[in-house]
Amino acid sequence: MLRQAITNIPEREWSKRKKDWSFSHTIYHIIETADFYIGNTPEGMEWGKRAGYSWENDNEEVILKRISSLTKEYLLEYLDEIEIEVSQFLEESSEQNLFSTDEFDHGNLLIIKKLLYLLRHNMHHIGELNKVLRDTDSTRIKWE
Q1: Domains of the chain from N-terminus onward
Q2: Beta bridge partners of 101
Q3: What is the C-alpha separation between 9 and 84, in angstroms, rounded?
Q4: pLDDT, tens digit only, all 144 positions of the chain
């Protein structure tokens, strides 16, 4: 569905900012969040690193500049990478593993609940993307 969103958005809308968000930033956010939650621990995650910025060290101007420079091709490559990692994780997970915990929430969160949160999170943002596609008379995302 993200692939459809990336393909369907006109270039003129790709990095257009509305308030503090853009289509390209939403795509990046969805992929980066999947990258985060597919891991076993929140430790070591450097939000923004793949886009070339640091939430902790860079100012808003630098962050917005880096986000606006993200290309469709770059995010499709990042999506390909994370898609493989998610698929491998799911293929290698047993029922016992999914109902165990990892380092998230101090070991108090079942992995299956973490994955369900990720799914809900992504669908929320995919809805936002679909609204932009509709508002720009672009082909909308098909539910898959």
Answers
A1: 2-135 (1.20.120.450)
A2: 110
A3: 24
A4: 999 999 999 999 999 988 878 999 999 999 999 999 999 899 999 999 999 999 889 998 898 899 989 999 999 999 999 999 999 999 999 999 999 999 888 878 899 999 999 999 999 999 999 999 999 999 999 987
Instruction: Enter the pTM of the model.
Output: 0.93
Contact 8, 139 (CB under 8 A): yes
- Distance (Å, whole) CA 2 – CA 143: 11
Q: Where are the alpha helices (DSSP H) in the chain?
A: 2-8, 11-14, 23-37, 60-68, 72-92, 95-98, 111-135
With beta carbons less than 8 A apart as the criterion, state whether 33 and 122 touch.
Answer: yes
Question: Which of 118, 105, 113 is CA-nearest to residue 31?
Answer: 118
Q: Please say whether the beta carbons of 136 and 12 come within 8 A.
A: no
* Angstrom distance (rounded) from CA 67 to CA 28: 8
Q: Which two tokens stand for residue 58?
A: 């860079």
Return d(Cα 60, Cα 32) in angstroms, integer.
19
